[in-house]
């Protein structure tokens, strides 16, 4: 309780006790699979940074004490990372940092569109993360793109990241930032930029992997046996997965424009220039997705055209053979009527003549159909 007495000005003691109990059982690890800590806590990491340098605390992960010290010294910030917290787990944290209830609800329940919202002194941003799902062979039911979410609360002295999904760990990003203290020294806004840049870079990686699948399908469709062996279900599956990727990428354009152009209290103007660079990368991804969608439409239309041509070829062959068979059928039908007074019935060479006429007519029809490409 000694640490709680040091922060009597931090809202209510009851909320701080919840946070204290939550953070003290968090491990000193940053796991991405499984993402939750072995002890069941949603807190993945809690670290204090001053002048871009990570601070070593007596008890790593003691959020209450870290926030109290940062607010007392008015220097540095706390980066708290969580994975799929429950309402109960997040309640004390929200009270400690004064987070808006609407933003807290979005962070806990997830399934949000990419967005940026401002609540007094706090900025709340939502990013959709994407991951390419490796598969030995693309089928009509293969999962190609898996999505998750990262919610980021940014204040003057804190960054809170809430991650949903089993991918998109921020551990490697945290290590990368710690290796460049001059970037971390710019404060929580620099962390927000790094997360946005990390998410968009993942978009680029996924689009490159999806392009390989599209190239594979395209090669199969335009092969010599494409009309018979190509599976249109694979094309439809790629279009569905591409739609999921599009839903994650395209809505992020507006939030990035807000971060890059509009004045925001917790983001310095020099940081906004970096958001413009991220926005340029996002536009590139958006253009690639639009091009992929058009290409898949063209591949699907080409495949349907190939199937139609193959069906027409089969129909013409059937028609040609039916016309050839119709000649002997007609002549045999005529001379099978068994009338007593039919010409050539009693003639010695009648049978040979009829067979010769049938054979000649069939040969002429066959050569005519072959010449015209029907056989």
From TrEMBL:
Subcellular localization(s) per the UniProt record: Cell membrane; Membrane
The record's similarity note reads: Belongs to the CorA metal ion transporter (MIT) (TC 1.A.35) family.
In its keyword annotation, does this UniProt entry include Transmembrane helix? yes
SUPFAM superfamilies annotated for this entry?
Answer: CorA soluble domain-like, Magnesium transport protein CorA, transmembrane region
The record gives the membrane topology as: Multi-pass membrane protein
Give the reactions, separated by semicolons, that this protein catalyses: Mg(2+)(in) = Mg(2+)(out)
Q: Which species does the entry assign this protein to?
A: Streptomyces spectabilis
Q: What GO CC annotations are associated with the protein?
A: plasma membrane
**Official protein name in the record:** Magnesium transport protein CorA
